[in-house]
């Protein structure tokens, strides 16, 4: 069963991830996001084959972000009553604030893990095809998006060429972030001007092959929703429900 | 709504999304994951970067939807490229896009001057902040701190996205690349019917 | 037998933003199975005409058309959107921007889905077209990983899979090197014989097509038809004869230069010298290291070995990649190295005065190239490397490029020019640097290269036709 998540219908996966996220937003106890996070990790561990080293590397910035959330919530927490349970550097922390801080911290971890689960187990092309087939995203948008995706290597190469050419003209690497933001104009104008030309060519090529943007009834590679997807969705929702319920009880 | 859209306009927005994606990654990327340690406020000032594509596209195409569509497409492409923030981006893309769209809709898609563009940038910031308030649980933070974050984000939207978007649209218009798009038809990019 | 598949009666066309018509009163018919080429200078509206035939226009540009276009005996306006594209297929010029899917198979399936071909039929059609076009081994290939020539074949397969009656070609060779282009034409010739398709092409470099076309329709600059006659094989682009600008003083001296990027050796140690005023062509197969050499010489890539030069500049294939400002004047003054007199002198010599205040992106390709050379000279870089400047150029563009380089060389500027175009090389080059697989085969006198078929063959080059149009002045 180790590749179940990879084979799951991307739209179903997308909806589950979004629903879980929105549900989490209603909980401010630390247990719900913690349990959900652990649950997601368990699902990913048993139902997917991924490069965990890469996963850990990508998780790192989120983990730092979670730490940032923790101290921000402790220092700038809303005054929502509750008992003072400790203080440091002149800032008093109530039990309420303590719980909220951990809740938000675990929420960040749960969201990040959920996002990485999606990113690591979903084929981008299948995802867009599924958005069109299951979620009725109009073909003009779905295929328009596909074109952008195909152009990635071409545009990346173009950016390299432009930066090399501009360096030759004496434009040096800007050191500070504000210089870099301001300096992007020089890169963006040629890139965007090129994109306008390429967009027209690509659109013409598609239309010349009979693409009208009409919805299609048949697909060469249909992306299907099977019974397995419902079962998997059920498993995710069960983990979500259990986390919510357990959080409510333990948070009392 | 899509009926009135030419395919080349949709593909254009999609390529814009890719261009901003890679320029951000390669040229600006702060490469500084430690910023996360500072907490949620660290990124507030640069939120406007994400709204530029909406404002630039609207400035060029000038049709209902020209703010919300590019932001949505850009978000889908980010997800396809394996952005670790994942599918969340799509929903926030739609919401930010709607915020910018609201400003143009309020002026009935008749004015595309700097003021409207800054308003659109601020609109995207407000919508995205309300969404963030809910999803990221800002309710747990001190109201004055939340107000600070909100102010920073709105300023970023108005300045980086509004002024930046206008600046890029004018720059691109001057290159002559936009012949055949609405922006070139109203001879000067400013206000006017 | 004499069935008209396309017929135009007094067709004119105007873009909404333009005061003048792009096409003016065109009347002609094309019969089934004909091979027709529409030729004319850039800007004569030949691509516009093609887009009227496959109905991308007038809708896509809100253009205003007059007159009657009949396709297969029915008025073009009576076809529903997309309907005509089952019967008229098109291959475009840019190999990089005519695909929306990842693999060849997906791209073919995309076309069939558009045409609502029943699923039961899809597999057969894909297999058939891949066999017919000799691309069976490429079915699962990622399109963006293929070469330019291969992409054009895939684009042709995508056009043929709809089983069309007319194939339109929009300068399909523009971005291919001459050898690849010749192979493409031969391949297309076989396909046309096999299928009996009507072929209508827009092209400005007819010499590459040899005897492919039967008929030529020539458009003039004002979009009127100026000739309609049987096509004969064209002489290659003619360049004036000219004496060398070599002064005998050394300009560029390269010793044991090698390039290694992330542990991979891209160029093995190589040495050569180039004289002041010399024009050296750098040639060799795709991926052999020509651009790497260029970028190492001008300092974009790190290298070992020594390069002695009074200052080396670089003009990329898209000259606008160099541009940083909003006017030609600012562009030349950007580095602040040139005095006002130098700038005025450059403006005069490079004919930039009329566009001095224009935006450098908004001028013609030839003018962009002049600006690029101007920026390099303003920065005191009298050795200039040009990367593929001949690619996508029509006759006028090539002749303009020739005089630009030739005049500068006689002012003492040294050129290294990367090109596959041996016609151009034969006209312009004093010497030729041949590169293969990251190694310098050697520096040769141009005539010695043309005289050695095996050398040409090894480096994937076609010999120039009607060679010796330039007197060997240094013999």
From TrEMBL, chain A:
Keyword Cell membrane: yes
Membrane topology: Multi-pass membrane protein
Pfam families in the record: CbiQ (PF02361)
Localization of this protein: Membrane
Superkingdom as given in the UniProt entry: Bacteria
Swiss-Prot/TrEMBL keywords: Cell membrane, Membrane, Transmembrane, Transmembrane helix
Coiled coil region boundaries: none
TM ranges: 12-28, 59-78, 108-131, 230-250
UniProt-recorded name of the protein: Energy-coupling factor transporter transmembrane component T family protein
Lineage start: Bacteria, Bacillati, Bacillota, Bacilli, Bacillales
TrEMBL record, chain B:
Name of this protein: ECF transporter S component
Pfam families: ABC_cobalt
InterPro entries cross-referenced by the UniProt entry: ABC_thiamin-permease_prd
Positions of transmembrane segments: 12-35, 41-61, 114-134, 146-169
Keywords of the record: Membrane, Transmembrane, Transmembrane helix
Originating species: Bhargavaea changchunensis
From TrEMBL, chain C:
Entry-linked SMART domains: AAA
GO molecular-function terms, A-Z: ATP binding
Pfam families from the UniProt entry: ABC_tran
InterPro entries listed in its UniProt record: AAA+_ATPase, ABC_transporter-like_ATP-bd, ABC_transporter-like_CS, ABC_transpr_CbiO/EcfA_su, ECF_ABC_transporter_ATP-bd, P-loop_NTPase
PROSITE patterns in the cross-refs: ABC_TRANSPORTER_1, ABC_TRANSPORTER_2
The family this protein is said to belong to: Belongs to the ABC transporter superfamily.
Name listed for the protein in its UniProt record: ABC transporter ATP-binding protein
């Amino acid at each position: 069963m180790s590749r179940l998540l990879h084979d799951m219908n991307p739209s179903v996966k997308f909806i589950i991830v979004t629903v879980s996220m929105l549900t989490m937003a209603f909980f401010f106890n630390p247990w719900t996001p913690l349990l959900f996070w652990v649950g997601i990790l368990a699902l990913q561990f048993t139902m997917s084959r991924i490069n965990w080293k890469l996963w850990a590397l990508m998780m790192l910035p989120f983990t730092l972000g979670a730490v940032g959330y923790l101290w921000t919530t402790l220092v700038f927490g809303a005054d929502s009553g509750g008992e003072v349970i400790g203080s440091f550097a002149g800032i008093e922390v109530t039990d309420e604030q303590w719980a909220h801080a951990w809740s938000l911290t675990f929420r960040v971890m749960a969201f990040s893990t959920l996002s990485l689960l999606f990113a690591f187990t979903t084929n981008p092309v299948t995802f867009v095809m599924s958005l069109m087939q299951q979620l009725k995203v109009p073909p003009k948008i779905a295929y328009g998006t596909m074109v952008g995706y195909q152009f990635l290597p071409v545009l990346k190469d173009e950016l390299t060429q432009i930066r090399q050419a501009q360096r030759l003209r004496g434009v040096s690497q800007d050191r500070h972030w504000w210089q870099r933001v301001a300096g992007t104009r020089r890169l963006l104008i040629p890139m965007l001007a090129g994109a306008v030309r390429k967009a027209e060519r690509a659109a013409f090529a598609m239309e010349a092959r009979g693409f009208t943007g009409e919805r299609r009834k048949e697909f060469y590679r249909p992306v299907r929703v099977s019974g397995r997807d419902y079962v998997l969705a059920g498993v995710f929702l069960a983990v979500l429900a259990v986390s919510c319920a357990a959080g409510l009880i333990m948070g009392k | 709504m899509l009926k009135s859209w030419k395919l080349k306009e949709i593909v254009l927005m999609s390529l814009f999304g890719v261009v901003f994606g890679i320029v951000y990654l390669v040229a600006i990327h702060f490469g500084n994951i430690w910023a996360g340690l500072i907490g949620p406020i660290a990124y507030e000032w640069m939120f406007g970067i994400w709204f530029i594509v909406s404002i630039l596209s609207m400035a060029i195409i000038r049709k209902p939807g020209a703010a919300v569509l590019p932001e949505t497409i850009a978000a889908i492409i980010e997800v396809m490229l394996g952005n670790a923030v994942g599918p969340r981006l799509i929903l926030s893309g739609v919401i930010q896009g709607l915020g910018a769209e609201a400003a143009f809709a309020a002026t009935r898609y008749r004015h595309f001057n700097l003021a409207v563009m800054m308003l659109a940038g601020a609109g995207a910031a407000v919508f995205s902040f309300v969404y963030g308030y809910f999803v990221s649980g800002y309710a747990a933070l001190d109201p004055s701190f939340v107000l600070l974050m909100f102010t920073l984000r709105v300023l970023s939207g108005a300045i980086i996205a509004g002024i930046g978007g206008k600046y890029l649209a004018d720059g691109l218009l001057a290159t002559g690349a936009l012949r055949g798009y609405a922006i070139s038809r109203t001879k000067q990019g400013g206000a006017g019917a | 037998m004499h069935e008209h598949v396309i017929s135009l009666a007094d067709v004119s066309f105007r873009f909404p933003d333009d005061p003048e018509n792009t096409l003016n009163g065109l009347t002609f018919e094309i019969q089934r199975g004909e091979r027709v080429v529409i030729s004319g200078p850039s800007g004569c509206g030949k691509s516009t005409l093609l887009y009227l035939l496959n109905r991308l226009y007038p809708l896509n540009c809100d253009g205003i058309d007059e007159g009657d276009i009949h396709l297969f005996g029915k008025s073009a306006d009576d076809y529903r959107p997309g309907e005509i594209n089952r019967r008229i297929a098109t291959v475009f010029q840019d190999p990089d921007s005519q695909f929306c899917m990842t693999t060849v198979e997906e791209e073919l399936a995309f076309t069939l889905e558009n045409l609502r071909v029943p699923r039961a039929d899809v597999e057969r059609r894909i297999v058939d077209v891949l066999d017919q076009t000799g691309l069976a081994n490429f079915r699962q290939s990622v399109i963006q990983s293929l070469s330019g020539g291969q992409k054009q074949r895939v684009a042709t397969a995508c056009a043929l899979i709809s089983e069309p009656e007319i194939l339109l070609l929009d300068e399909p060779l523009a971005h291919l090197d001459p050898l690849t282009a010749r192979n493409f034409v031969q391949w297309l010739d076989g396909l046309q014989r096999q299928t009996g398709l009507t072929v209508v092409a827009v092209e400005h470099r007819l010499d590459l097509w040899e005897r492919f076309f039967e008929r030529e329709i020539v458009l003039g600059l004002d979009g009127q038809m100026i000739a309609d006659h049987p096509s004969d094989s064209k002489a290659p682009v003619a360049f004036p004869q000219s004496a060398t600008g070599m002064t005998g003083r050394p300009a560029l001296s390269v010793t044991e230069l090698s390039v290694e990027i992330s542990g991979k050796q891209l160029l093995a140690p190589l040495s050569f010298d180039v004289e002041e005023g010399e024009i050296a062509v750098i040639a060799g197969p795709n991926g052999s290291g020509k651009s790497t050499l260029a970028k190492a010489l001008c300092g974009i890539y790190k290298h070992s070995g020594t390069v002695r030069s009074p200052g080396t500049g670089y003009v990329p294939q898209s000259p606008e990649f160099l541009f940083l400002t909003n006017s030609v004047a600012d562009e030349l003054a950007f580095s602040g190295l040139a005095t006002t007199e130098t700038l005025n002198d450059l403006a005069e010599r490079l004919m930039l005065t009329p566009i001095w205040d224009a935006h450098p992106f908004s001028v013609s390709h030839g003018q962009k190239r002049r600006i690029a050379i101007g920026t390099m000279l303003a920065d005191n870089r009298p050795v200039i490397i040009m990367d593929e400047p001949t690619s996508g150029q029509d006759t006028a563009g090539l002749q303009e490029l020739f005089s630009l380089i030739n005049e500068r060389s006689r002012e003492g500027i040294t050129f290294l020019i990367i090109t596959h175009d041996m016609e151009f090389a034969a006209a312009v080059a004093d010497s030729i640097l041949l590169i293969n697989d990251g190694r310098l085969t050697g520096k040769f006198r141009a005539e010695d290269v043309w005289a050695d078929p095996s050398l040409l063959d090894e480096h994937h080059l076609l010999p120039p036709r009607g060679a010796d149009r330039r007197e060997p002045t240094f013999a």
